[in-house]
Design a protein that fits this description.
6 strands
């Protein structure tokens, strides 16, 4: 993700989430030393993006913080492509595990993550600003990549 992509990424973010990150928040995420941010560029137009951070504990863990695809292109495999790409970069950064939070009502995203081998390990009530809940989901990176055919 480059600075020139931020406007389009921000548009997709606003169209995808009830409590979207601001353009500034996305920019701040991208410049963190431990962050990985990718865009899905189709013919020079950003159509999706994913952001994650590599968190170091006893081992490196990939925390996927945002993934969204242009509403006109959903359910065509692009989310899966973005997920696989960020998992590969996480693996290359030494991550063995990945985790994320997802709205309990976002059934399409939950299906995608489950197909990728992610499992729910906790439900968090009132997680988001609007009071809605989230599932915390996690997976072994290599197993998830295998589930995605990588």
């Amino acid at each position: 993700m480059k600075a020139v992509d931020l406007g389009r990424v921000s548009e997709i973010e606003r169209a995808s989430f009830k409590a979207p990150w601001s353009k500034r928040m996305i920019k701040d995420m991208c410049v963190l030393q431990n962050s990985i941010c990718q865009v899905l560029d189709m013919d020079g137009i950003v159509r999706g993006y994913v952001c994650a951070s590599v968190e170091s504990f006893e081992t490196n863990i990939l925390h996927i913080v945002n993934l969204a695809v242009d509403s006109l292109l959903r359910r065509q495999g692009y989310g899966r492509m973005l997920l696989a790409g960020i998992l590969e970069q996480g693996r290359d950064a030494g991550c063995e595990w990945a985790y994320l939070e997802v709205h309990t009502t976002n059934l399409a995203a939950i299906r995608l993550y489950r197909k990728a081998g992610f499992k729910i390990f906790r439900k968090r009530s009132h997680y988001y600003e609007d009071g809605s809940g989230a599932y915390e989901m996690g997976a072994a990176v290599e197993e998830s990549l295998k589930s995605l055919g990588r």
